[in-house]
Amino acid sequence: MSFEWPWQYNFPPFFTLQPNADTRQKQLEAWCSLALSYCRHHKLYTLDVMEAQESPMFNNKKIERKLSMETIQIVFEELRKKGNLEWLDKNKLRCLVMWRRPEEWGKLIYQWVSKNGMVNSVFTLYELSNGDDTQEEEFHGLEEWMLLRSLQALQTDGRAEIISMDDGKDRFIKAL
Amino acid sequence: MDRFSWTNGLLEINETLVIQQRGVRLYDGDDKAKMDVGVALLSTHRLIWRDNKNHECCIAMPLSQILFFEEQAGGIGKSAKIVIHLHPTPPNKEPGPYQQSKYSYIKLSFKEHGQIEFYRRLTEEMTKKRWENMPVSQPIPTGTGLQAGRTRAVGIVGIERKIEEKRKETDKNISEAFEDLSKLMVKAKEMVELSKSIANKIKDKQGDITEDETIRFKSYLLSMGIADPVTRETHGSGTHYHMQLAKQLGDMLQAPLELLSPEDLVNACKMFESLKLPLRLRVFDSGVMVVQLQSHSEEEMIASALDNVSDKGSLTAEEFAKLLGLSVLLSKERLLLAEKMGHLCRDDSVEGLRFYPNLF
């Protein structure tokens, strides 16, 4: 299924940072939503900012408009504030994109676990993200760091326990 | 021979060589001169003689020194000669080979012939007296030495002198040209003084501005192209003046205005409302000020702007201006206002600034 662009994507003013405060707020919301859904569709978990500027996400070749680096940074800052983005470096060149927040993932995972009657069972991270059983699940193929965060969120919630063996090399999860 | 002076042999600026003849021996009166055989040169100004072997030994005398001259035919063992009788030595004569002489004539002995031509040319020069029409510089006296003290005008010294003369000429031209400017500045200074005096009087409200000053001032203004100004003098200073101006403006907005200072114009415009004139001064966020008819309310302007833009899909300030017959500045201000109100949004790209209806 190809990605469906929002109507704003083909509206030239969408690519100019609007001076009117109210207009700008709506614009940025639309950008955040677009960025997240694009990453979700393509299963992108990390972004390189330079590459992103040239990717279709921020660059609409058809109407010959693209977001300026300045505006991209503003959009990313909005995402960060919402908890959907985390900078990997000080220079803000690479970031983690959490188009689904860890808590949301955790909830999905727990739902699957409980639906399959696997509460109190122990399984590895790998089983969760790459196991045959989870193929239909959205969290299938989830990158390890994201999975871990999601489980940590569950752990904080008291709904899972992360067991580390061999000095942290192997991890097991027990859903509670 | 005491009429001769040492020389370096170079010709002056206006001096030209007429003829030269080698193999000439000089005689002091009837006695052979102490020099050897040399070259005799005749110029438009002087009679010059130079030693063959020692070129530094060079002497000359002005032709004006010559009283008269005659030929002396040669014979067997005797060369043809020209005998030249001379005027008494002038007091400022430069040093020469002879301090004194008992003779007042010299002879040129032509050992290698050439006396006929020389005689002919000498006659010519003495007749023409060209040295009288083409003066050369005065000799600069020097103390001793073989070299004469005269400065020569050929060679580097000549070039230097020419440069100096040219510089003096240029200087003179520039000074003359600036004379006009000085006159203008004097006039301007007068005007400034007068303006200051009037301004001070108005400020201090001291004494009346004399009629004479008024006339002078008006004449200055007239010469600058201000025909019949509403001057502060005739209509008083401050607000009253601006009120009058405002009324004038209100009446003749369409007609070309007289020359007016921008400050006065703005102050007058500020009075529109209080004077119940159908005009308003409007100041935009950017600082741009416009005069507009009162009938133009803000909402109307914005609504019409939105209509126009929606109609065309999008508009630039230039396109909008053309559509409405407004100035680009004014149309841009209107679009910006509509954007501020949230009715329009902007597309800023390399193609320019374009406004769209705000679909966000």
Automatic annotation (TrEMBL), chain A:
It holds the Pfam family ESCRT-II. One of its GO terms (molecular function) is structural molecule activity. Gene3D superfamilies: Winged helix' DNA-binding domain. Chain C. Domain 1 (1.10.10.570), Winged helix-like DNA-binding domain superfamily/Winged helix DNA-binding domain (1.10.10.10). Keywords: Cytoplasm, Protein transport, Transport. It comes from the Eukaryota. Transmembrane segments: none annotated. InterPro entries: ESCRT-II_cplx_Vps25-sub, ESCRT-II_cplx_Vps25-sub_N, WH-like_DNA-bd_sf, WH_DNA-bd_sf. One of its GO terms (cellular component) is ESCRT II complex. One of its GO terms (biological process) is macroautophagy. It is found in: Cytoplasm. PANTHER family: VACUOLAR PROTEIN SORTING-ASSOCIATED PROTEIN VPS25, VACUOLAR PROTEIN-SORTING-ASSOCIATED PROTEIN 25. Belongs to the VPS25 family. This is Vacuolar protein-sorting-associated protein 25. It comes from Oryzias sinensis (Chinese medaka).
UniProtKB/TrEMBL annotation, chain B:
InterPro entries: GLUE_dom, PH-like_dom_sf, Snf8/Vps36, Vps36, WH-like_DNA-bd_sf, WH_DNA-bd_sf. GO terms for biological process: protein transport to vacuole involved in ubiquitin-dependent protein catabolic process via the multivesicular body sorting pathway. Component of the endosomal sorting complex required for transport II (ESCRT-II). The keyword Protein transport applies. It comes from Oryzias sinensis (Chinese medaka). Belongs to the VPS36 family. It comes from the Eukaryota. It is found in: Cytoplasm; Endosome. Component of the ESCRT-II complex (endosomal sorting complex required for transport II), which is required for multivesicular body (MVB) formation and sorting of endosomal cargo proteins into MVBs. The lineage of its organism: Eukaryota, Metazoa, Chordata, Craniata, Vertebrata. Keywords: Cytoplasm, Endosome, Protein transport, Transport. One of its GO terms (molecular function) is phosphatidylinositol-3-phosphate binding. GO terms for cellular component: ESCRT II complex; late endosome membrane. This is Vacuolar protein-sorting-associated protein 36.
